[in-house]
Amino acid sequence: MSAAQLVRPLLFASRSVPRQFRGVGKPNLHRIVMASSADASHPAPNTPKKRPHGDRPQHRFKRAKKDLKTRFEGTHEDVLLADVWDLLANTTLEDAKVGASANEKDTEAARAVSSEPKTADAAPSSLPEKWSEIELPITSLSCTGDGLALTRLSDGTPHVYVVPFTLPGDVVVAKVVRHTAAPIPSSSSREMQPIRYTVTDFVRVVAPSPQRDGALVKCKYFAACSGCQLQMLDYGAQLAHKRTVVERAFARFSGLDTKKEVPVVGDTVASPLEYRYRTKLTPHFDGPPGRKQSDGRKGIVRGWGGQVPPIGFMRKGTRQTIDIEECPIGTEAVEKGMRRERDRVARDIEKYKRGATLLCRESTRRVAKYEWEKEKEQRAKSVEVKREWEDEVVEDRGEFVHVKSCVTDSNAETIEYVDDNVFSNTAGAFFQNNNSILPVFTQYIRDNALGPLEASSASNEDGTNLPNPCTNVPSTALFNLIDAYSGSGLFTITLSSLFSHSIGIDISPASIRSANRNAHELNKLSPSRASFQTADAAALFESLPDNVKGDNSAVVIDPPRKGCDEGFLRQLAGFAPRRVVYVSCNVATQARDVGVLVKGIEGEEVGSRYMIESLRGFDFFPQTGHVEGVCVLTRREKGEAESG
């Protein structure tokens, strides 16, 4: 073992590092922690001194695990930092070109111009004071939905300001909130080279961008509430930006050659509803003033003093709660429920000893039209008008009506319909929050779960025309679907007609209980057609039946924002399904994981590798910077892997 060794081996080699972060002087998003045996007797300055008997006390700060991070985690800060670095690097390269052309005779001086941003030595004195207001021209729109302004400090150093609620071409006044130095290890020196940028609050527009249209804004809290970022931008432009977000993620975080290994990103699929689409809102309120000094055991209890606290969502960039009376992205039923909950909290505020988060979740009751007419007649004859009747929203769906209501008890049942499939969940459980886009979304997954050869073998709803694994069929036929991170069975159920058997796997027993009820009781699927089991995704392929092989299976994965862990990716490559459909609410971690599936795991000959067949985004959250990514991969055969 060499003196300088990795404390934790990297699963992903340098090829997983974004291309513009490679090379001499270019930082690497992956944090490599080096340990030298020669330095063992010379601890770092912040390491506690040895006791007289030789051992050291525990470090006061529990940051060891954080410092050992070896994988790009795709957090909001990580993605923003990549945007900042890209803007600085491109600007410095342009400066280098200008300098070289202006002084071609001095070639040595031209070569001396560094392509790395001058960020480490920016003098704090040249930065604007905290809370001061400055005028800034917005240069670009980040993948987080924030505007970026590029200016030069008094010493000539390029510097980036992050300004929310702005668009390229805007000239705005912003208030300085904090100066940030984010460490990124330099691949050349192994030293932490900080990239400095400044976070600001939006104050006002001095000169609007041609893209800005204030008439599009439908929320009176916009530019204060942290929920939406893009209401002033035309919806078509929002979709185009989100396509760019997917492109940037795979260019920066996959480690793939975007010209050879990543196909052209498809247009972002629009949400049928641009507003009134969100079926779940969780407004909250903070505890009473002086609550930190409250101690019931000592008789010190801080009350509300008759005041109702702000009930709503966070102010952008702060921990302050804004009082939100209405939210235009919530469905009509959810907004009615939120108003009802606000009234209830105001009446019962003295019952709360601390703050709370409220739940407003839409539930749907499907009623045949003739039955609904009878129900309306009975209601008209009723002496008592129930409050829940007033809060219902009725939608005409042809032969049926959908009666929408708002559920506020996290343990109560909610019902959602996706086409003719019905899903039951407890109100507090996870389910996609934009029901309007789910039919086109699930149809897209259906269309891509099978390859061209297998699509002709898809079955009808009654189960006929299914491929039979007992007959002499081509080895390319797909019989099985494995739905990893299945939740309450959205993909397992909506794709079940395509496969002989669909298996949903989730770590949550509660989700599996809901999935079984959804499949067998509500959607009338037999256990032989769709089944579910509880297992950790990191070990899920170990629990599959012996007759379920990679050659006859497709896998759909929809992990949380952090993406797939290392163990799961190893298992997936080892199981080697013919097709993989990767759905993600975080395209940065999706790109990271897909890069591993395409390139393989560094230093390991494990399983198969894949080709990206298609890639595109779905707009589950209009008016925000978020985009849902869908990446379809097909397994390389041995000849293809060698030639690729």
UniProtKB/TrEMBL annotation:
Keywords for this protein: Methyltransferase, S-adenosyl-L-methionine, Transferase
InterPro entries: MeTrfase_TrmA_AS, MeTrfase_TrmA_CS, NA-bd_OB-fold, SAM-dependent_MTases_sf, tRNA_(uracil-5-)_MeTrfase, U5_MeTrfase_fam
CDD domains: AdoMet_MTases (cd02440)
GO molecular function, one term: tRNA (uracil(54)-C5)-methyltransferase activity, S-adenosyl methionine-dependent
Active-site feature positions: 585 (nucleophile), 585
Record keyword Ubl conjugation present: no
One GO biological process term: RNA modification
Disordered: annotated span: 36-61, 99-127, 280-301
Skewed-composition ranges (Basic residues): 48-61
Protein's UniProt keywords contain Disulfide bond: no
Family annotation (PROSITE patterns): SAM_MT_RNA_M5U, SAM_MT_RNA_M5U_2, TRMA_1, TRMA_2
Residues binding S-adenosyl-L-methionine: 432, 485, 506, 558
Protein name (database record): S-adenosyl-L-methionine-dependent methyltransferase
Organism lineage string: Eukaryota, Fungi, Dikarya, Ascomycota, Pezizomycotina
